[in-house]
Design brief:
The complex is a heterodimer of chains A (277) and B (291).
Chain A: H1 9-21, H2 26-42, H3 48-62, E1 78-83, H4 90-103, E2 108-113, H5 120-131, E3 134-136, H6 144-158, E4 162-167, H7 175-191, E5 198-204, H8 210-222, E6 226-230, H9 240-248, E7 252-256, E8 264-266, H10 269-276
Parallel strand pairs in A: 1-4, 1-5, 2-3, 2-4, 5-6, 6-7
Antiparallel strand pairs in A: 7-8
Helix pairs in contact in A: 1-2, 2-3, 3-10, 4-5, 6-7, 8-9
Chain B: H1 2-14, H2 21-37, H3 42-56, H4 59-62, H5 67-82, E1 98-103, H6 110-123, E2 128-132, H7 140-151, E3 155-156, H8 163-177, E4 181-185, H9 194-207, E5 211-217, H10 224-235, E6 239-243, H11 253-261, E7 265-269, E8 277-279, H12 282-289
Parallel strand pairs in B: 1-4, 1-5, 2-3, 2-4, 5-6, 6-7
Antiparallel strand pairs in B: 7-8
The chains are: A alpha/beta (277), B alpha/beta (291).
Bound molecules: guanosine-5'-triphosphate (2 copies) and magnesium ion (2 copies).
One guanosine-5'-triphosphate sits between chains A (84, 86-92, 114, 117, 120, 168-169, 202, 230-231, 233-234, 256-259) and B (106-107, 137, 188, 190).
Chain lengths: 277, 291
């Protein structure tokens, strides 16, 4: 695509293929290509590079990426609820975020509210140890809301700055599991004024169009404040985030680009769009 | 659904008189939309439409009293063909332990599916052994040993170490003790991670698995093709397991991975519990993909 010079049919077709291959989805792709064709006409563009340049600017400008809610010293603890489907990278992302907070001198507590999956709390415990965060866990099979209740009580008692609540992976169409999530959220709201201050949907970049359904249903159930797009170190681009921003109005706050503790950074729309080509 | 949309299109086309080939082309565009919506890879969709075009613009459709249904049937049959038609079982060695290696991207469901397979094999009267070859992920070994206890299947683990050595010694133990199936749970990895892909190749060379199964998340998007192709080129897969089909992902990745590797999907994961594993039936997945 970058090698092409002319704005011919083949260029437009290859641009469409590039966006579909990046999981933008057909409707979003057609809208973007349609808008670019109009822009090309209006701006009298003749070179492929010009259109690519317009695309990069327009899409980057369109992508919302406000920072995480600031950790105000006054509201203690600052509570971050982390949700998403199975295997998307929630636990690992929490480990990375905890490490960042610790580097800034904040005290951190991790709450192991995944009481279902084998060794979920053990996995979070490793991340707590790595980042010097505290950990609250119950035995496997217990009530997740109870762990959250205890965790927040302990965090308040100890004057912890930031609490991350790790929840079990769940497919968004499972009614009882989404109800469980709502219950967890209610416990958080009752325990801490203004909490959860951040509710993050962790989304795997390899996910296709189902990501849109994930964003919608998790947002309905638990009022998301942002998305963490993980596994961008792979070949998938997670282009469905454009449709998510359009239809669910959610920003991408962070991207995960590896399995190590330092492989998380704030989302940068320009960098993201550059990487598409 | 696709059949509703096709019925609506044909109704409009029909009102203009006799159906023509270009009318059916419009219909095939609708099929393309449905398949892309379902996450089937663009290249695979192209090839598929080209493969059914001749039949779709033939008399079977143009002269049918129910052309929408005729097209749906052609699409349905074509997708079933593409998925290999029948259910392909696991293969077992005539003598000695059968080694089954599970591979795939991070979080696709390998460890859980390993436990599910172990439970199924145990119920079938075989003596499986689970092997913890993921020495990287925090608490991966604990996850496998916990699942092993749940399904009453022994787990061979050495903690951290060299996965190839661990697999070799696990196989030796299996031979000594009499385990008929050895299930290797490997670490999730990107298909573009050279050192980790070489590790898998070494693992394969060391213990010669009879089955190398790629575990793929049913919600995987367009990259399913590149992932499957690379794993297949590097390892010569013998099959695949499609997971998390208990959600509402359409599962088009199934078509993509089958089309690009030619390897059969042997099982599907339909839940988080250890009994949530089913044999793959192409017709059920096709109905799901077509929405
Ligand atoms: N390559 C890569 N792998 C990642 C990234 N984030 C997480 N992972 C890996 O993805 C796998 C799943 O991560 P988890 O943190 O266990 O995911 P989870 O959402 O907590 O999973 P469940 O609790 O089982 O739903 C692990 O192997 C992680 O190392 C990332 O940004 N890049
Ligand atoms: N709903 C559902 N969840 C599943 C299924 N299979 C696995 N899971 C869940 O998906 C998540 C990831 O499963 P794992 O078995 O840890 O995946 P993995 O491929 O071993 O992950 P890595 O070792 O980190 O690469 C866990 O939360 C599992 O419970 C399935 O068929 N349906
Ligand atoms: Mg987790
Ligand atoms: Mg695993």
């Amino acid at each position: 695509l970058l090698g092409r010079k002319l704005l011919d049919d083949q260029f437009w077709e290859e641009l469409e293929e590039t966006l579909i291959a990046a999981d933008f989805g057909l409707p979003t792709t057609e809208k973007i290509v349609g808008d670019l064709k109009i822009a090309a006409q209006q701006q009298n563009l003749t070179l492929a590079d010009d259109v690519i340049r317009v695309f990069k600017t327009d899409v980057a400008d369109y992508i919302k990426h406000p920072a995480m809610a600031p950790v105000a010293a006054s509201t203690k603890p600052h509570v971050v609820l982390v949700v998403g489907v199975n295997g998307s990278g929630k636990t690992t992302t929490i480990g990375k975020l905890a490490a960042q907070d610790r580097k800034q001198g904040r005290s951190v507590m991790l709450v192991a509210a995944d009481t279902f999956r084998a060794a979920a709390a053990d996995q979070l415990a490793v991340w707590a140890q790595r980042s010097g965060a505290e950990l609250v866990r119950h035995t496997e099979g217990g009530d997740p809301a109870a762990v959250v209740f205890d965790g927040l009580a302990a965090a308040k008692a100890r004057g912890i700055d930031v609490v991350y609540v790790d929840t079990a992976g769940r497919l968004q169409t499972k009614h009882n599991l989404m109800e469980e999530l709502k219950k967890i959220r209610r416990v958080i709201e009752r325990a801490v004024e203004g909490a959860p201050h951040e509710t993050l949907l962790v989304l795997d970049a390899t996910t296709g169009q189902n990501a849109l359904s994930q964003a919608k249903l998790f947002h309905d159930a638990t009022n998301l404040t942002g998305i963490v797009l993980t596994k961008l170190d792979g070949t998938a681009k997670g282009g469905i985030i454009i449709a998510i921003m359009d239809q669910v109005d959610l920003p991408v706050k962070y991207i995960g680009f590896g399995e190590k503790v330092d492989q998380l950074r704030p989302f940068d729309p320009r960098g993201y769009v550059e990487a598409l080509f | 659904t696709l059949s509703d949309r096709l019925a609506a299109i044909f109704q409009r086309l029909r009102s203009r008189g006799k159906l023509t080939e270009s009318d059916v082309s419009e219909v095939l565009r609708e099929v393309r939309v449905a398949l892309l919506e379902a996450d089937v890879n663009l290249g695979v969709v192209r090839d598929f439409i080209a493969a059914i075009r001749e039949r779709a613009v033939g008399a079977e459709v143009l002269e049918s009293l129910t052309p929408a249904q005729a097209v749906i049937k052609i699409v349905h049959d074509g997708l079933i063909d593409m998925l290999g038609g029948t259910t392909e079982p696991l293969h077992f060695a005539p003598t000695g332990p059968t080694v089954i290696m599970l591979v795939g991207l991070q979080g696709s469901g390998k460890t859980t599916q390993a436990a599910k397979l172990a439970a199924r094999l145990r119920e079938a009267g075989r003596r499986p052994l689970l092997v913890a070859c993921d020495v990287y992920r925090p608490a991966a070994i604990t996850q496998l040993t916990t699942l092993g206890e749940q399904v009453d299947v022994p787990v061979y683990e050495e903690g951290a170490g060299d996965p190839v050595g661990i697999a070799r010694r696990a196989l030796e133990q299996a031979r000594r003790v009499g385990n008929s199936v050895v299930l290797l749970d490997t670490a999730g990895r990107l298909q573009i991670d050279e050192p980790l892909m070489r590790e898998l190749a070494s693992l394969k060379a060391a213990v010669s698995p009879l089955e190398s199964l790629l575990v793929v998340d049913a919600m995987t998007g367009q990259e399913a093709v590149n992932v499957a192709k690379t794993f297949d080129e590097r390892l010569a897969l013998t099959g695949m397991i499609l997971t998390k089909l208990d959600g509402d992902a359409r599962g088009g990745a199934a078509l993509s991975i089958r089309a690009v590797t030619g390897k059969p999907i042997k099982f599907i994961g339909v839940g988080e519990k250890v009994n949530a594993l089913e044999e793959f039936h192409p017709d059920r997945l096709v109905s799901r993909i077509l929405g």
